[in-house]
Design brief:
Elements (H helix, E strand, L loop, with lengths): L2 H4 L5 E10 L3 E10 L10 H23 L4 H17 L7 H6 L10 H19 L7 H11 L39 H15 L7 H15 L6 H15 L11 H6 L1 H14 L3 H38 L5 H11 L2 E2 L1 H8 L3 H13 L4 E2 L9 E2 L1 H8 L2
Antiparallel strand pairs: 1-2, 3-5, 4-5
Helix pairs in contact: 2-12, 3-5, 3-13, 5-6, 5-9, 7-8, 8-9, 8-12, 12-13, 12-16, 14-15
Length: 391
């Protein structure tokens, strides 16, 4: 951590910490303790322009969702992409095909990475429902963090509650002196900081637009770093929860992690720069760019998905295929990977009927067999998967 640079922070302070690192022995260093979030900030005209652009983009995204026959057709593909990229930002790399196969009822032999990424999908879907009935709180976030690590073998000892020890952000297995950032020690100062953060997000300053509130709350959450693990994923999920809670968005179709992943170094540097300078403008501008660009990307993805459905339906109509196959087609956007057994169960078909329907779609190139095996075969809408990858 650049101690000299951050020592002059106008919105926080350095506090001494000491302890023993199992790999590197005893240490004495510093941690950064952010002050509570302010009720107002001075924003430049350029920043206000970015805020307005992000707000318009969110409004347009919500309009697109409202025009869909079922918003879930866009929400789930967007969430799959978010799950992959928010995990990649933390060093967990997975493949879309593996994540989609994990959604199947009888999915087996999942890699540890796929289990972890799939857990994020489960956690996010649950959180989207919870936030409609509950306020955003530390207690809620503890529940989400606990669920995130439910099936992880090497989980933190303090999973499901605030961290019990000191952590630092930076290269793994390196001493604290080489950390990029050291958040507050796990004592009353962390608890007090989180209490203030919770009070701020539950009753945010009305003078600040919701996009600005989300940017500031995300910074503060990451600066406090309340959990032993999962802070990045939970912190980025909080952004969506704030937008839903404020009714800025009615549907959780936004995905910011793909943009943050493409601008990973800038993302990290902007967060650190707030602590060092106390100037919110560069970070809020960056955050607004992420929202505006990703809204455009998701909307473009939705248009491509709807075009795919329209063109695929024309193929079915030309062959006069009717019945369940017409119902099955648009659902491939939400569930682009399937098996014969899953299809039979989902649409109330016999195994023979499901086999015939999948064979029809395979013959015309709408579905492709993904495993190359004569048994336990998995089929996927590859065109849909490619569109999702590009969101």
């Amino acid at each position: 951590m650049d101690v000299e640079r951050i020592a002059s922070s106008p919105i926080g302070e350095l506090v001494p910490v000491q302890g023993t690192d199992a790999r590197h022995g005893q240490f004495a260093y510093f941690a950064y303790l952010p002050h509570p979030l302010p009720s107002d900030v001075v924003l430049e005209s350029r920043t206000w322009t970015g805020v307005a652009k992000a707000a318009r983009a969110l409004g347009k995204l919500d309009q697109v969702c409202a025009q869909l026959p079922d918003p879930k057709l866009l929400i789930r593909p967007t969430l799959f992409k978010e799950a992959l990229d928010t995990s990649a930002l933390e060093g967990t790399i997975g493949m879309l095909k593996d994540l989609l196969e994990a959604q199947l009822p009888n999915a087996q032999f999942l890699s540890p990475e796929t289990k972890e990424i799939n857990a994020y999908v489960r956690v996010a879907m649950g959180a989207f429902e919870m936030i409609r009935q509950r306020q955003l709180s530390i207690g809620l976030l503890c529940e989400l963090q606990n669920e995130l690590f439910k099936d992880v073998e090497d989980k933190p000892d303090d999973v499901g509650r605030l961290r019990q020890g000191l952590v630092w952000v930076g290269p793994r297995h390196r001493p604290i002196q080489e950390a990029r950032f050291v958040p507050p020690p796990a004592d009353d100062r962390l608890r007090s900081g989180l209490d203030s953060w919770q009070e701020w997000v539950q009753s945010p300053p009305e003078i600040l637009p919701v996009v600005v509130q989300a940017a500031m709350a995300h910074y503060q959450f990451e600066a406090l770093h309340p959990f032993g693990d999962g802070n990045g994923r939970i912190g980025r999920l909080i952004v969506v929860l704030q937008l839903l809670s404020s009714e800025t968005l009615k549907h959780p179709a936004i995905s910011l992690s793909p943009w943050f992943l493409r601008h990973r170094t800038e993302y990290q540097e902007h967060l650190l720069a707030v602590s060092c300078s106390g100037d919110w403008n560069p970070w809020i501008n960056f955050f607004c760019d992420a929202i505006a660009d990703q809204c455009s990307s998701v909307i473009a993805g939705a248009e491509r998905l709807l075009t795919w459905v329209h063109e695929s339906r024309q193929v079915l109509d030309q062959r006069r295929w009717t019945g369940k196959i017409q119902e099955f087609l648009p659902q491939l956007i939400e569930w682009p990977v399937t098996t014969i057994a899953d299809t039979a169960s989902r649409y109330g078909l016999t195994v023979m009927g499901a086999t015939r329907m999948i064979q029809h779609l395979t013959d015309v190139g709408i579905l492709h067999e993904l495993t190359g095996k004569p048994y336990g075969r998995v089929f996927g809408a590859v065109d849909v998967m490619n569109i999702v990858e590009g969101i």
